[in-house]
Amino acid sequence: MVHFIILASILLFFLLNSSKKEKKPKKQIKNVKTHNVNRITEVAKKPKMENVETKNVPIYIKGKRKPLFVDVETTGLHSDDKIVSICMILLDAQESEEKQKLICKSLYYIFDPCKKSHPIAEGIHGYNDWVLRHQNLFEEKMHDILSLIKESDVIVAHNVKFDMKFIRNAFYNASIDIGEIDTMCTMEMHGGSLASCAGRLGIHRETSIHDASEDTMMCMFLYLKK
Q1: pLDDT (tens digit, 9 = 90+) per residue, 67-81?
Q2: Which one in 36, 89, 115, 141 has a CA-CA gap of 20 to 30 Å to 96?
């Protein structure tokens, strides 16, 4: 269901902003939390990578035509910390601007990091050790992740250096070099935290928990708005 939520959010965001004369209502991202244990297991085991074609929607991507939006949650901030969850949304803008079609691919995984999260990090991502040790290892899903990275022409994240450091480390531990990749940082584009930047667009988290899918969508909105 994640890719349907993503597509619906994109359509709603741009339709509400397509006319400058219309009053812009406050928008909220809803129903993307997955902290029920059964739901977590289901999401982690099923990659959401189906293609979705949009028609007659006033959305145009200029410049890089295949941006990949990314967010990771981790066990902590140090070099030996691991990825707890990852969300990726790839937008593929096909044909010309006049006849542009958007193909959306996404994935959302929760991993067993094989180490305990720092208490502060656990409070941020919201997954306890009992839940995480029942999830897949990163190595079991890394080829899906690598496929989206290789298909994209730029990776976009809020504080992209942080996310890319953990992604590179995870692949390095699996003896894979993902090579040089173009990146863009929405934190540098807009200035400030993800919550504060998205808040200026009327977009807010449901709770204080940082969900990778929710944060990835917020990052995507910031990029498309700019």
Answers
A1: 999 999 999 999 899
A2: 89
